[in-house]
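Annotated sample (chain length 192).
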Amino acid sequence: MAPHGAPREAPTEAPTEAPTEAPTEAKRSRSEQRKLRSRDAARCRRSQETEVFYELAHALPLPRRVATHLDKAAIIRLTLSYLRVRHLLAPEPEDSPGDSPGDSPGDSPEDSPEDSLDQFYPQVLGGFILVLSEEGDIIYLSENVSAHIGITQLELLGQSLYEFLHPCDQEELRDLLTARSAFTSDADHGFL
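Output written by the structure step:
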């Protein structure tokens, strides 16, 4: 009986296991489908993010060859620096906020005679131009900075000047920046 009973037990176990395996396989496939959908959604979000960074990089006032080689952190850093400089140089609105110079589509920075003279300032000064915020962040540098200190303009923009100073000199810069900010008549700008 034992040899005859053994084969009977195997078929009785198989039908009971088959229904329990089917839901497990269905759970696995649903889980895999969710993972696949999640992966696709993340890929789509990354693609949209990359497009936004691409557009932002090409909106910056940089040569196209430079803008195409920026990483995301550099794009954000340079955009913040550009916005700070623009805020610093923006004229105070007299009538309405939308009437400031440069807002009309026909105005371009290259058309201004002042901007054509700006390229000669670094040559006349024999150095480079550096604009700092009150916190010591570099918000503007002339392009010729690399000729003087060996670090490119793009690497420095948006960085804190304290990162490049000797610790002994940091306190002196802090004193200069705080003394200057005490005499700043326009507290809204917050830049030197």
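Annotation: The chain is about 60% helix and 5% strand.
Annotation: Residues 111-183 form a domain with the Beta-Lactamase fold (CATH 3.30.450.20).
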